[in-house]
């Protein structure tokens, strides 16, 4: 099982501010993901990475950016927060399992409220 | 067409009953299948994975896979109020992409 951490857990911030949501995992997983999820709604993939210096946009258009300079760290940045960015942001990581496919493990999430 | 389809529910069952959750997927080449549980306001947690046709049992949970019908299900025996949550089906497609369904909300009534 993965140990995956997200900070902050809750963030209330004003419009126009720059924010970075942190995600770290200690299992050496190559793949990491960011999902956005509104209450009671489905997960939307916004970014993913298959390794260091590899980042891709997901299925949901997002104004956020990500970086992957170290295997264990996958921060997400919003240059100018807006109320439409209010949501829960979930980070996940996975590795290839031998003959068993990939299993994603999730961090606890960051709840963002932009005023 | 979505890659993974689930009935959004809510599915209501009485305590002690069997809850049956269903999922269909569109990519016939998919090889790996997962069930996650998500409590309100929390992150998804893995319940079970299944890779071969047939049944896989883990405690009160049984996952069933039928690749010919592109169908995967989760049975919860002796349902408890603590099982009330949203259950997400997930699939790794033939192109090695991970897809989540929109989830089925389960209510277990005492």
What features would you describe in this structure?
- The complex is a heterodimer of chains A (115) and B (110).
- With 115 residues, chain A is mainly β.
- Helices cover 0% and strands 50% of the residues of chain A.
- Chain A is built from no helices and 13 strands.
- Chain A has strands at 4-7, 10-13, 19-25, 31-37, 44-51, 54-57, 65-66, 76-78, 87-94, 96-97, 101-102, 105-106, 110-114.
- In chain A, the strands form 3 sheets. In chain A, strands 2, 4, 5, 6, 9, 12 and 13 form a 7-stranded mixed beta sheet that branches.
- The mean pLDDT of chain B is 94.
- In chain B, strands 2, 4, 5, 9, 10 and 11 form a 6-stranded mixed beta sheet that branches.
- Chain B is 0% helix and 55% strand.
- Chain B has 110 residues and is mostly beta strands.
- Chain B is globular and about 40 Å long.
- In chain B, a hairpin with a 2-residue loop joins strand 6 and strand 7.
- Chains A and B meet through strand 9, strand 11 and strand 12 of A and strand 5 and strand 9 of B.
